[in-house]
Write a structure and sequence with these properties.
By secondary structure, the protein is an all-alpha fold. It has a domain of 46 residues. The chain is built from one helix and no strands. The longest helix has 45 residues.
Length: 69
């Protein structure tokens, strides 16, 4: 029984020691994703706009749909 208590105590300490590092890793990854999204948005905003109208993709349904009579 003492061995089980000791093992649970060691595992608990291991979790307490590693939890801040894991939380930090998750936080850094979230910030990295936000930075990537901001850079992509800035690059899209800096791109010159096309003067030709965009064509719908082949097979795309028209935004105007027929109504039943």
């Amino acid at each position: 029984m003492e061995a089980l208590i000791a093992m649970v105590a060691v595992l608990g300490l291991f979790v307490l020691m590693t939890l801040p590092a894991l939380i930090g890793i998750v936080h850094d990854r979230r910030i990295d994703r936000q930075i990537e999204r901001a850079e992509a948005a800035r690059a899209a905003a800096e791109r010159p706009a096309d003067r030709t109208p965009a064509r719908p993709a082949q097979g795309a349904a028209s935004h105007r749909t027929a109504r039943a009579a």
